[in-house]
Structure formats: structure tokens, C-alpha cells
From TrEMBL:
Residue ranges, compositional bias (Polar residues): 8-17
PROSITE patterns associated with the record: ATPASE_E1_E2
Membrane spanning stretches: 297-318, 351-376, 890-909, 921-938, 967-989, 1001-1018, 1030-1058, 1064-1084
Alphabetized GO MF terms: ATP binding; ATP hydrolysis activity; ATPase-coupled intramembrane lipid transporter activity; magnesium ion binding
Matches recorded under Gene3D superfamilies: Calcium-transporting ATPase, cytoplasmic domain N (3.40.1110.10), Calcium-transporting ATPase, cytoplasmic transduction domain A (2.70.150.10), Calcium-transporting ATPase, transmembrane domain (1.20.1110.10), HAD superfamily/HAD-like (3.40.50.1000)
Residue ranges of the region described as Disordered: 1-24
Protein name: Phospholipid-transporting ATPase
InterPro entries: ATPase_P-typ_cyto_dom_N, ATPase_P-typ_P_site, ATPase_P-typ_TM_dom_sf, ATPase_P-typ_transduc_dom_A_sf, HAD-like_sf, HAD_sf, P-type_ATPase_IV, P-type_ATPase_N
One Pfam family matching this protein: PhoLip_ATPase_C
Record-listed Mg(2+) binding positions: D424, T426, D828, D832
Catalytically driven reaction(s): ATP + H2O + phospholipidSide 1 = ADP + phosphate + phospholipidSide 2
Length: 1124
């Protein structure tokens, strides 16, 4: 068992499986659901994953949407506009933008929830066979019952390839020994078959007789899918029968290779482990969206300044013209039409009130300074970006037939800003397909690959995974009685074949004379070891609850399984007690060397122990995963003592887990060393090249693994994570004091090497290697955490060995809390889930260890090497596009608002608008929305080839070059200039004419729309027909809308556009506005690209002159790196 594999499973058990006491137990009466639910009504079996009901949808959905403060802002604007004193726009027009955004989101949420409701109905209405007593007859039969009607205590019968309707304890199976095989693919993603057992006490009793005569006391519902703690009480049995994880079948599993199984429901509905684990991953927000709040506050400040200025100036104007207000067009102070009341005031509340009203009216008029359409645009852009990532053939893994998955749409752009990657090793950097390579048996090393060859001869059993065998070992095995080494070799392979939880499946092969055996198990290491034993002639062919059958060199032999202590992360080993055919009882143990050498009796064969330790070191040095195997023959007295202790521990209601570990520790001692194995976990394709590319992109790669230090270091060299020129800082501490000294020494070394390095080019690269034991002491103290951070941040590579799952998350959190660096975690197993959820970006590898990492991730893919195109290409594109789109939206709306502001200054601060209210509403929705969405999805500042060839270009996202406060200030200055051009050029041309405000407003509308679209067109880098259609089509659409609006007689400005368009001055002014408005942007763009270009612009010029440039300048020095 690999440390990675075991630590995740057992760590979750220790966390969620509390010791069972009487007050915590629930009593389930077998076959008597009525009495079971009599005292305390347990959860029904109906499940609901939908969020809304028809009655709660509208209020709850609106409540969730208004968590966005921008929506609250626009709601307040719409409410203000409904007041007569503040009405600027028509009441319907003011509500439409917010209503549109809310409706689109509500429709999307309603569709998603309708799909959940449909899935829930289909699930709840499935049929299960439930044991029911026939009224009057006294007999019992299985009755088809809807899943939603199944209750705790019901006895259910499940057929082959069916799933149980709830979590149920097995009572009987079609196998005479009580074995059932289940597949947990839908629960944890693991496709290998697992064994579950019915207890012999229930197996020998008719199920009908158990009804009402048995009680199960089990722990309360929890989400630990690997743990279960209960006792079974039978009327005729005085003792309690212990039940554990191997006796329960969970909802979501499928029954395989078993005709039927019968069980009693102990957890139903929302209390099943599958439903308790059905929690979504933590909500993450992108870095850009977080920064966007800063700019939104700036825009709010600008809005308040504009509104305050208008309100203050309106007060001054009212005070100056106080005597003229009775006849003023917009301030009829006296209501001369009201003959009933003399001297009555009309629509006038005094200067102070008018200042307040004007401030609020200005907020309504200038509301689009904060663009409501930006949120919808961002969602659509992310959806488009996700589509292209999913469809990218370069992210498709043919070996697992898996495409890239985008599970979180709200952080696409974060892929372009990653500075630190935290990676698992097994299954992430490596294939997690274990291959038995060598062994050390009784102190003799069998690692010479020149002696290895495929199995030869006429074999009756062939393992599905072929294994090369050592000719010398094979000769020893076949001549078992000839030498003592031969006997030890035979016992070694017997240990490999027995000390496991593997399930053998017999398959028909191409040759009818040969049977193919597919070994199914939870650990790839175990599969490799059992396959190796089979290749040497020790073939595991059958497993039941009480015995296994091994074909030993052509002779089938039965071995009774008398006891089993499964692997756990505390002991780091597993053991099995076997009753051998020669009537002896033997204890076989295998585990990590750090655990095993503590229980080996080194006085028995000290030379063998010393030689094996040397062989283990050499195996680890070449990257092999190692396990140590030991044996001890038990006397009858020892076995009986163990059996009694095990029975007491397994039936204890309090402290069962600790008692079982204590029983295992007592029996696992004074072992005789049999030998050790070396298993190769090959690197995935392209891992060294990928790590080198990431390093060139200034991305730090940290590896966090449960493997031993030598193995991790060897893999580090293999994948080019570690290099020969690196200075290694190793921290292996066994106490708090030694840990503190090691950290102080490491800090001193870092400072010393820094002082010796005169510049970055001569800096000595550093690698920190630390083990999980040291991290235990470090995470106990804040001061030690700070020291570790100081050392780690100065190192180019960090390699953490023997780390537990929560330590992985702690290391990620160490960096997140103390830096602003974007973190990414990638892993493939359940032990990586906490790390994946802790990082800013979590990526799951769909590999050999199930899909728990995938289900907890933001993105999922098949190979580690896909990180390179994902980050360097898609991440760069996503960040560049989204950053530009956000800034462009701010610029676009600010330009329009400033045009309105200039007009207010020339109309007595009355906040009337020359631009029609419908054009104001449609500006952000139709006139200018589509082009920015299309460009943000399709535009590419650089080609894929260039981005992959020069990984340094990824630094633009790390340095936030595409979205920062400086760019925001620049685009706001540009918007002010362009608004001045849009407003004052037509104003100065028409100021002495008799043109009406509606005609002037149409000119301003068309001018600002054309100007912002040409601004966008000037920044587009790669044109497609869709981009052309979006940009020029939006201008045409604006023209059509203005014409349609001015063609409606009931709307103000009727026929205005037709009057003004017929003059040559109109077209001349349009051209003048465009030319004058674009001068600063064009000049700044030209100066920046030709005189102070950044890396992106240099690379873009290279692309334009690619062929000639490659001939004359094969290498190009990027400006940023030249400076550094």
C-alpha cells in the first residue's frame, strides 16, 4: 500500500469517525421499520438536490441575486426614478436594464433547477424490492416499493448491477460465504471492485426470521464513506457481533459479480453518506473580479463628484435667478392654472429641496457610470472561454478518453496569473500504474534487469498485467526444496499473495486453455505485488470472507484468513493472520520501511536486515516505491489471545478504533524480515518538459507527497524539478527543538548564499526538502511557521515528503496568507481534496485513484503536462481578454456619462437630456455590448506557438500588466477627452443655429457609439468575420435603432434624425469627432509600441515578421528579462 493511498483513506476515518457511545448510537430494528421510527422519526428516503420550489423560486432567487451590491444600486436608481419629483426617464425605461439582467439570470437558474427536479423525481420513483409481511398469511415476500417510500429498518433485496436505495448493512448474499462485490464509481469514482461481507450469524439465518429478532446499534450519520461502526444484537446470541465498513453497502454503489444481496437500511435519504457528501466545492472569486471592486469604488466616487457638482451649481443657479423662477420654463414657481388657490406653488420646494432633488436626479441620469451589463458580459465571456478550453484537442487525454472539464466558470482568468503550483506526486507527476521491478529476499538483491524476461511456458493462469520475472528467482521458486534461499523465496511470494485485500476476477482470454486474472483492488501497489506473485507461480484465484485460494506452482491450496488489520496512516502497515495448509498459523505484515523496521526482530538475522536496508536505499535512489515484508509464526496460545483481544476491541462501544490499533500493535512485533519490494511508478509523458516550461514562466513548483524522502528526491531529479546545481536544504526533525535549530540553520544558509550572489544571474538555486514530521512541529507554532515561510519563499523548489492531507492544505495556506501570489493545486486522489479546495485554483487529474479530486476541483484534465497549454496559452488569453473587457466597459460607459454631464452644464443644471431615454437604456445593451463580448472570447494577442515557445510571456499576467490602476486612470482620461470631442465639436458647430436638441442628441448618440467601437477596433489584434460582424454590425444596429425611435410619433424627437442626416455638416461632424477623439489613443498606442514596448508587443512584432526574423535573429531577448 502506498503512503499516498492509505493516508487519505485512514485520515478521513480518523477525522469523521467518532468513537461510538450509547448516547450516540441509533437503534435499528431489522425488518421492523414501524418500531424503528416509533420513538424518533428518522429521515425518509426521498432526496432533493433542487434549490427551489415553485413557491420559493422568485423570492429566494431574487434574494441571492441581490447579494451583488451593484444590483442593489440599480434597484435604488429604478425606485428613485418612479418618484414624480425625480423622474428623468420613463418609468418603464428605467426599470428595463435591471429587469433584463435579473430575468436572464433567473431563467438560467430556473432551467438548472428544473433539471435537478427532474433528476430527483426519476431517482425517488425508482423501484426497490422491500420485504413485506403478507396480511393474514403470516408469510413474507419482496414487494416493489418506490425508493422514496423506503424507511430505516426495511429489509431490501438488490439484484446484480443494481444500486441499493439507501445505506444498508448486509444480511445475506447469493454467495455461500457471504461475499458481495461492489463498485463505488458513482460514489468516489474508483472503478475497482471492493468486497463486502455478510456476517456468518445472519448468513445462516433465514432473512424472514431476522425480522423483529435483531437490532443494529450504529453510529449517527456522518460523511465518512470509508468508516462505519456498529454492533448487531441477535436474540439467540449473548454477545454483540461487530459491524464495520466491510459490512455496509452505500447508496450510490453498484452490485457486481453477485446475483443478489439482502440488507437492512440503516441510513436513508439525506442521511446517507452519498447525500452528506453532496456538498458543493467552496465558492471562489477571481482576482480580477476582486480588483474590480476597487475600480467600482473609484467610479462611485466620480459619480458622487459629478452629482454633487451638478447639485451645487443648480443651487447657485436657482439663487442667482430667484426672481425669474415664476416664469422659468422648468421652474413654474406659481401655479397660475390653479384658480382655487391663490399664490399656490407648482413643482417647487425651495432651493434646498431642489439641490437634493437634483443630486438624486443626477444619480439617475449618470447611473450607467457603473455598468450593469458588465456582469452579464463577464458570465457570457467565461462561458465562451470555457467552450474553447473544453474543445481544445491538445487538452484531450486519449489514454483515459477524458476531455478538459471546466467545473467553475468564475475563475477562468485566474489561470493567467498563477505564481505557485502545489502538486501531488503519485498519479499526478507519475502514472500511478505500478509495475513490480525488483525485490530483496533474505538479504539477496534481485534487481539486475538483464536477468528479467517475460514469463515463459504453458501457464494455466495469466495475470492481466504482464510482469517480467527474474530467471534466478524463478529457478529458486521451482526448486523450492533444494535450498534455504528457495524456501525463503517461496514464503516471500506467499506473503505477497496473501497479505492484501485484492479481489481476483477470472476472465476468458484469447487462448481457451489460459484463464486471464484481473486483480481488482483499492491500491495500485497491491495490484502490482499480487500480479508479481502470480507471474512467479503463486496465483491468487479466489477470495471469500473466510479463506483465499492460491494456485501454488500448479497446485491449488486453501489458506484460511483468520484475521486482518487493514492499512492505516498511523501504523503505515497492514497485517493478515493466515491458517496455512500445513496447519501452522502465520502472521504476514507489509508496510513502509519507517514503520516495519520498528517491529522487526533484528537479532534473528542482523546481516539480512543490514543488507535489506542498503537495498531499500538503492531502490529509493532510482525512484522506486518500496515496501518491507515480514512474517512470524504464531503459537496456538498467541493466536487465541489475539482472537479474544480482537473480539473485545471490535465489539467495544467506546474507543473501538484505538483498541483495534492497540491489538494490532501487540501482535505485530518480533517479526522476521522476509524481504522488500521495489515498484516503479513511471513518470507521465511530458512531465520533465512541462516543469521546465513552468519554471521558465517564473512559476514555482512545489511537490507534496506521502512517499519517502529518497523516492521523492529521485522522482524530483527524473522530472527535472531538482537539478545538480541546486543547493539542497533538508529539514528532518524529531522534536520541536531540533526543528527550531534546523529552521535557524536554513535561514542562515539562505542569507549567506544571498550575500554571495551579486546579481540574479549568479544566484545559487535552492531546494527545500522537508518531511511531514517536521511540519507537525512547525504548524504548532506561529514563529516556526514564519521561519518556514522565509526559507520556502527564498527557494526555487520545495519538496515535502511524508505529508498528510491536512498538511498539504496547511502548506498552501502558508503561502496564501502571507503573499498575494496566485496559487494552484493539482492532484488526483482523495488525499489531495483539501489542498485543491484551499488553493486559488484547484485542478483534478482524472486518473487511477478515483474522481474525488475531480469532483472537488475547479478544472479537471487527464495529464499533468496539460498544465502548460492551459496556463501559458488559455490562461494568458483569458486574463488578457477579461482584463481588457472590464477596462473597456468602464471606458465605454464613462465616455457616455461625461457627454451627458457636459450637456447638463449648458441647460441650467435641469438634468434634461438631449439623448433619448431609450438610447440611454440601449447604449449598454445593444449599441456597444456585443462587440466587447465577441472580442473577449475570440481575440488573441499572441498565437499559441509563440506563447509556448517563450514561456516568459506568461509573466504579463503575474505582473498584472493588462489590468491595474494605472491603466484605469489612463482609460478614464481617454474617456474624458473623447467625451469632450463628442460634445463640443457638434455643439460649437451648431451653437448659433436653430437645431433642436433631439437632432443634436441623435448626433451625439451616433458619435459616441461609433467612437467607442472604433476604439475597440483599433485594439483588436486578430480579426475574424465574427469580429467584423460584431463591431460594424453594432454601429449599423445603432443607426437603425435611432431611426426607428425617431420614426415613432408618440416619442419625443419625432423625425429629428431625418432632418439632421440630410445635411453635409452632419457627416463632416461625425468624421471630425472620430478623428479628434482618437488622436490621443492612437498617439499613445504608437509611442508605447514603438518606443517603450513590453514583452507582448515585441513578440507580436516577431509574429508579423516571423520568417525573416527567425533567419536573422534566432533568439530574442525580452525587454522585461533584459532589465532584470
Amino acid at each position: 500500500m502506498a503512503e499516498d493511498h492509505g493516508s487519505s483513506r485512514n485520515m478521513s476515518m480518523s477525522m469523521s469517525q467518532k468513537e461510538l457511545g450509547d448516547e450516540d448510537a441509533r437503534a435499528v430494528r431489522v425488518g421492523d421499520a414501524a418500531r424503528t421510527n416509533e420513538r424518533l422519526e428518522f429521515a425518509g428516503n426521498a432526496v432533493r438536490t433542487a434549490k427551489y420550489s415553485p413557491f420559493t423560486f422568485l423570492p429566494r432567487n431574487l434574494f441571492e441575486q441581490f447579494h451583488r451590491l451593484a444590483y442593489v444600486y440599480f434597484l435604488a436608481i429604478a425606485v428613485l426614478n418612479q418618484l414624480p419629483q425625480l423622474a428623468v426617464f420613463g418609468r418603464g425605461a428605467s426599470v428595463m436594464p435591471l429587469a433584463f439582467v435579473l430575468t436572464v439570470t433567473a431563467v438560467k437558474d430556473a432551467y438548472e433547477d428544473w433539471r435537478r427536479h427532474r433528476a430527483d423525481r426519476a431517482e425517488n420513483n425508482r423501484l426497490a424490492a422491500v420485504l413485506s409481511t403478507v396480511p393474514g398469511a403470516g408469510a413474507a415476500e419482496y414487494v416493489p416499493t418506490k425508493w422514496k417510500d423506503v424507511r430505516v429498518g426495511d429489509i431490501v433485496r438488490v439484484a446484480a448491477n443494481e444500486s441499493p436505495p439507501a445505506d444498508m448493512v448486509l444480511l445475506a448474499t447469493s454467495d455461500t460465504t457471504g461475499v458481495a462485490y461492489v463498485q463505488t464509481l458513482n460514489l468516489d469514482g474508483e472503478s475497482n471492485l471492493k468486497t463486502r461481507y455478510a456476517k456468518q450469524e445472519t448468513l445462516t439465518t433465514r432473512v424472514e426470521h431476522l425480522a423483529g429478532a435483531a437490532v443494529i446499534r450504529c453510529e449517527r450519520p456522518n460523511r465518512n464513506i470509508y468508516g462505519f461502526q456498529a454492533n448487531l444484537e441477535l436474540q439467540e446470541e449473548s454477545r454483540r457481533i461487530p459491524l464495520g465498513p466491510s459490512n455496509i453497502v452505500l447508496r450510490g454503489c453498484d452490485l457486481k459479480n453477485t446475483a443478489w444481496a439482502v440488507g437492512v437500511v440503516v441510513y436513508a435519504g439525506r442521511e446517507t453518506k452519498a447525500m452528506l457528501n453532496n456538498a458543493g466545492t467552496p465558492t471562489k472569486r477571481s482576482r480580477l473580479e476582486t480588483h474590480m471592486n476597487r475600480e467600482t469604488l473609484f467610479l462611485s466616487g466620480i459619480l458622487i463628484v459629478l452629482c454633487s457638482l451638478v447639485a451645487a451649481l443648480s443651487g447657485v443657479w436657482l439663487r442667482t435667478h430667484a426672481t425669474q423662477l415664476e416664469l422659468a420654463q422648468f421652474f413654474h414657481k406659481k401655479d397660475y392654472l390653479n384658480s382655487d388657490k391663490e399664490n399656490s406653488n407648482y413643482n417647487y420646494y425651495g432651493i434646498a429641496a431642489q439641490i437634493v432633488f437634483n443630486f438624486l436626479m443626477a444619480v439617475i441620469v449618470f447611473q450607467i457610470m457603473i455598468p450593469i451589463s458588465l456582469y452579464i458580459s463577464m458570465e457570457l465571456v467565461r462561458l465562451g472561454q470555457a467552450y474553447f478550453m473544453i474543445r481544445d484537442a491538445r487538452l484531450y487525454d486519449a489514454s483515459s478518453d477524458s476531455r478538459f472539464q471546466c467545473r467553475a466558470l468564475n475563475i477562468n482568468e485566474d489561470l493567467g496569473q498563477v505564481k505557485c503550483i502545489f502538486s501531488d506526486k503519485t498519479g499526478t507527476l507519475t502514472q500511478n500504474k505500478m509495475e513490480f521491478r525488483c525485490a530483496s529476499i533474505d538479504g539477496v538483491d534481485y534487481s539486475d534487469i538483464t536477468r528479467q524476461r517475460p514469463v515463459e511456458g504453458d501457464l494455466a493462469w495469466v495475470p492481466k498485467v504482464p510482469v517480467n520475472v527474474d530467471r534466478e528467482v524463478m529457478a529458486l521458486v521451482r526448486n523450492v526444496g533444494a535450498t534455504e534461499q528457495g524456501r525463503y523465496t517461496r514464503e516471500f511470494f506467499i506473503a505477497l499473495a496473501t497479505c492484501n485485500t485484492i479481489v481476483p476476477l477470472i476472465l476468458d482470454g484469447p487462448d481457451p486453455k489460459k484463464k486471464v486474472i484481473d486483480y481488482q483492488g483499492e491500491s495500485p501497489d497491491e495490484q502490482a505485488l499480487v500480479s508479481a506473485a502470480a507471474a512467479y507461480g503463486f496465483v491468487l484465484v479466489e477470495r471469500t470472507s473466510g479463506h483465499i485460494v492460491i494456485d501454488v506452482l500448479g497446485e491449488k491450496q486453501r489458506f484460511d484468513v483468520l484475521g486482518l488489520h487493514e492499512f492505516d496512516s498511523d501504523r503505515k502497515r497492514m497485517s493478515v493472520i493466515i491458517g496455512c495448509p500445513d496447519k501452522t498459523v502465520k502472521l504476514f505484515v507489509k508496510g513502509a520501511d519507517s514503520s516495519m523496521f520498528g517491529i522487526i526482530d533484528k537479532t534473528l538475522n542482523p546481516d539480512v536486515v543490514q543488507a535489506t536496508e542498503k537495498h531499500l536505499h538503492s531502490y529509493s535512489s532510482v525512484g522506486l516505491r518500496t515496501l518491507v515484508i515480514g512474517v512470524r509464526e504464531l503459537t496456538q496460545t498467541e493466536f487465541l489471545e489475539w482472537q479474544m483481544a480482537y473480539e473485545r476491541a471490535s465489539t467495544a462501544l467506546l474507543g473501538r478504533g484505538n483498541l483495534l490499533r492497540s491489538v494490532a500493535a501487540n501482535i505485530e512485533r518480533n517479526m522476521r524480515l522476509l524481504g522488500a519490494s521495489g515498484i516503479e511508478d513511471k513518470l507521465q509523458d511530458g512531465v520533465p518538459e512541462a516543469i521546465e516550461k513552468l519554471r521558465q514562466a517564473e512559476i514555482k513548483v512545489w511537490v507534496l507527497t506521502g512517499d519517502k524522502q529518497e523516492t521523492a528526491i529521485s522522482i524530483g531529479y527524473s522530472c527535472k524539478l531538482l537539478t545538480q546545481d541546486m543547493t539542497q536544504i533538508v529539514i528532518n526533525s524529531n522534536s520541536r527543538e531540533s526543528c527550531r535549530r534546523s529552521l535557524d540553520d536554513a535561514i542562515s544558509m539562505v542569507h549567506k548564499l544571498r550575500s554571495l550572489s551579486t546579481d540574479s544571474q549568479s544566484r545559487v538555486p535552492l531546494a527545500l526538502i522537508i518531511d511531514g514530521n517536521s511540519l507537525v512541529y512547525i504548524f504548532d507554532d506561529t514563529e516556526r511557521e514564519e521561519k518556514l515561510f522565509e526559507v520556502a519563499i527564498a527557494c526555487d523548489v520545495v519538496l515535502c515528503c511524508r505529508v498528510a492531507p491536512l498538511q498539504k492544505a496547511g502548506i498552501v495556506d502558508l503561502i496564501k496568507k502571507r503573499t498575494s501570489d496566485m496559487t494552484l493545486a493539482i492532484g488526483d486522489g482523495a488525499n489531495d481534496v483539501s489542498m485543491i479546495q484551499m488553493a486559488d485554483v484547484g485542478i483534478g487529474i482524472s486518473g487511477q485513484e478515483g474522481r474525488q479530486a475531480v469532483m472537488a476541483s475547479d478544472f479537471a484534465m487527464g495529464q499533468f503536462r496539460f498544465l502548460v497549454p492551459l496556463l501559458l496559452v488559455h490562461g494568458h488569453w483569458n486574463y488578457q481578454r477579461m482584463g481588457y473587457m472590464i477596462l473597456y466597459n468602464f471606458y465605454r460607459n464613462a465616455t457616455f456619462v461625461f457627454v451627458l454631464f457636459w450637456y447638463v452644464l449648458y441647460t441650467g443644471f435641469t438634468l434634461t437630456t438631449a439623448i433619448t431615454e431609450w438610447s440611454s437604456v440601449l447604449y449598454s445593451v445593444i449599441y456597444t455590448a456585443v462587440p466587447t463580448i465577441v472580442v473577449a472570447i475570440l481575440d488573441k494577442d499572441l498565437s499559441r506557438r509563440t506563447l509556448l515557445k517563450y514561456p516568459q510571456l506568461y509573466g504579463a499576467g503575474q505582473r498584472e500588466e493588462n489590468y491595474n490602476l494605472r491603466l484605469f486612470i489612463y482609460i478614464m482620461m481617454d474617456s474624458v477627452w473623447q467625451s469632450l470631442a463628442v460634445f463640443f465639436i457638434p455643439y460649437l458647430a451648431y451653437r448659433k443655429s436653430a437645431i433642436d436638441s433631439a437632432s443634436l442628441g441623435d448626433l451625439w448618440t451616433l458619435s459616441v457609439v461609433i467612437l467607442v467601437n472604433i476604439h475597440l477596433a483599433m485594439d483588436v489584434i486578430r480579426w475574424t468575420w465574427i469580429t467584423h460582424a460584431a463591431i460594424w454590425g453594432s454601429i449599423v444596429a445603432t443607426w437603425i435603432c435611432v431611426i426607428v425611435i425617431d420614426s415613432i410619433p408618440i416619442l419625443p424627437g419625432f423625425w429629428a434624425i431625418y432632418k439632421v442626416m440630410g445635411t453635409g455638416l452632419f457627416w463632416a461632424l461625425l468624421l471630425a469627432v472620430i478623428v479628434v477623439g482618437m488622436i490621443p489613443h492612437f498617439a499613445a498606442k504608437a509611442i508605447r509600441e514603438h518606443f517603450i514596448p513590453n514583452d507582448i508587443q515585441i513578440a507580436r512584432e516577431m509574429e508579423k515578421l516571423k520568417h525573416s526574423h527567425e533567419l536573422t535573429h534566432p533568439e530574442v531577448q525580452m525587454s522585461t528579462f533584459a532589465q532584470s
